[in-house]
Amino acid sequence: MIYINWVVALAAILFTVGAIGVMFRRNPLIMFMASEMMWNAAALVFIAYAREFHDMNGQVMAFLIMGTAAAEVGIGLAIIVSVYHKRHRLDIDEISRMKG
Amino acid sequence: MSATSTMLPEYVILGTLLIAMLGIMVSRAHSTLPSWIGLLGTIGGLWATADLWSRHLKPVLLFNQSLSVDNYSLFVDFLVMIAAGSTILLGWQGEREHDEFPVLVLLSALGMMTLGMSANLITLFLGVEILSLPLYILAASHRDPLGGEAGLKYFLLGAFSSGILLFGLALIYGATGSMTFTDFATAVSSNSPILAAGLMLALVGILFKLAIVPFHMWVPDVYEGSPDAVTSFMAFGTKVGAAVILLRFLAYGFYLSPDAWGPLLGYLALLTMIVGNLVALTQTNLKRLFGYSGIGHAGFLLIGVAVHSVVGARAMLFYLLPYGLAVIGAFAIITMISNGEKNVTIHDLEGLAHKKPWAAALFIVFMLSFAGIPLTGGFIGKFYLLQAALFAHQPGLAVGLVVGTFLGLGAYLRPLQAMFRHESNEQALAGWNVNWAQIVVLVVAVVGTIGLGVYPTPVVHMVNQSANFFWLH
C-alpha cells in the first residue's frame, strides 16, 4: 500500500530538483530538461490524486500534460538548434548579449 | 444554445487558421494571401463577437463546466481580435518572409480567447500553453542573433513558469478534489496547507506571464529581440490573456478567502508600478522602454484584481483597452521608423517633429495616453483604477498609482523631447517607410484613444456588463 502523501512528497522532491536545475545550470538543453522534470512532477501529482479520488479528470490532465510537453519539446529543440548554429556554443551566459 | 453558436468567434478563428494554412500551401512564397485570410478572419471573429453580444445571452457553461461563455469572455474576444488584427497588419511587410506569421498569431489569439472563457484547471493550462507555444516561435522568428536569444530566453522561462503553474494546479486539485474553479471555495476549509501552497505556486506561474515584479526579468530582453509586430502582440495580447485568467481564477475559485491573496497582490502591484516605471526612465531603446512601461502597466492592472471588488474588475477590464490601443499605435510608428530592420532608439526619433509632423503628433497622443493625461483613454482608465483602490479603502495602492504615473510621465517625455530636438544624427529616419496597413492601425488606435478619453460611456457600459460575472459564483 502506497500512501498518497509519499507520492506527493516524491513529486515535490522531483519538482525542487527540476527548479534548482533550471536556476543553476547554464546549458539550455539541461535547463529545458530540468523544466520538463517539473512538468512531470505535476503530472505525477495529478495521477496520484486521480487514483485517490477515483476521478478521471486528473488522468485526462496527465495526458494533456504529456501532449503539450511533446509540442514544447519540438519548438524548444528547434530554437536551441537554431541558436547553436549561429554561435556554436551552448552557454546561457555567453549567448546573452542584451543587458539593461 | 449549442456550443457551435455560442463559441462562434472561436470557431471562426479556428477555421480561418486552417484556411490560412491551406493558403500558404497553394500560394507562392512571400505572398499576401495568408495575411489577407487572417485579416478577414479577425474581422469575421469581431462580427461574430458583436452578434453574440447583441443577443444578450445568459452565461452558458460548456463541455462539463470547462468553458464559460458570458459577457466577460465576449469582451475578452473583442480585445483579442483587436490585438490579432493589428499584429497581422503591422507585420504586413516586415514579416512577409515568414509565411506562417498570420497562422501563428491566430493560434496564439485562440489561446487568449480560451483563457477568457476558462472555468476549470484543464482549460486554464491549455489556454496558457496555446497562447505561449506560437509566441516562442514568433519571438525567435528573426534570423539575427538577438532573435534567437529572445526566443531562447522566452522559451526557457516560459517552460519554467508553466512548470510552476502546473504543480500549483496539481496541488489545488489534490486539496479540493475538483478541477472546476467554482468548487474550490466550498470543497475544503481554506486553511489547508496544500491548498495554500497550490494557490501560491499557481499565482507565481500566472504572474510570470503577466510580468509582475519580481517575475519580470524576461520581458525587456524578449521585447528587444522579437520582431516589432510580435512585440506589440506580446505587450497587448499576453497581458489581456494573463490578466483575465487571473481575475476569473481568483474571483470564481477563491472569493471566500480574499485575505489569503488580496494583500499579497496589493504589495506586488505597488512594487511593480514603482519599479517598472522607475527603470523605464533610464532606457534608450524604445522597445525596452515599452517593455518596462508594460511592466508598470501590469502593476496598474493588478490593482483591479487585488482590491477584490466588482469596481476593481470593471476598472481592470476597462484599462486593458486604452493600454492596448496606445501599444498598437506606438508600435505602428516604431515599425515605420525601423522598417523591420533595426532596433529603434530614442536618438532615431530626433527631428521627427520637423520631418514628419503628423507621425509626431500621433506619437504624442499615444505617449500621453500611456502617461494618463486627460482627454486620452489612459486617463479614464487610471481614474477608474484610482476609484477602485479608494472604494476598497486601500490608500496605499492609490498613492502608488499616482507615484507610478508621475515616474511613467518622466519616462514617456524623454522620447517626446528627442522628437523636438534638431537632428544631429544624419541616419535618423533613413529607413522611413509607410504602407496602408500601418495607416489603418494608426487610425484605429488614435480614434480609439481620443474617443475613449472624450466619450467613454459606451465602453464603460460594456465593461459593466462584462464584470457582472463577478456575482455569478
Walk me through the structure:
The complex is a heterodimer of chains A (100) and B (473). Chain A has 100 residues and is mainly alpha-helical. Chain A has one domain: Helix Hairpins, CATH 1.10.287. Chain A has helices at 4-24, 28-53, 56-87, 92-95. In chain A, helix 1 (4-24) runs antiparallel to helix 2. The relative contact order of chain A is 0.12. With 473 residues, chain B is mainly α. Chain B has a domain at 257-473. Chain B has a two-stranded antiparallel sheet with strand order 1-2. In chain B, helix 14 (310-338) runs antiparallel to helix 19. The two termini of chain B are 21 Å apart. The chains are: A mainly alpha (100), B mainly alpha (473).
Task: Output the number of helix runs of chain B.
Answer: 20
- The separation of the N and C termini of chain B measures 21 Å
* Strand line-up across the major sheet of chain B: 1-2
Tell me, what's the shape of chain A?
elongated
Radius of gyration of chain B: 21 Å
User: Total helix count of chain A?
Assistant: 4
Total discrete domains of chain A: 1
CATH topology of chain A: Helix Hairpins
User: Measured on Cα atoms, how large is the radius of gyration of chain A?
Assistant: 17 Å
Largest sheet of chain B: 2 strands, antiparallel
Mean pLDDT of chain A: 88
Approximately what portion of the residues of chain B adopt beta-strand conformation? under 5%
Helix content of chain B: over 70%
Oligomer: heterodimer
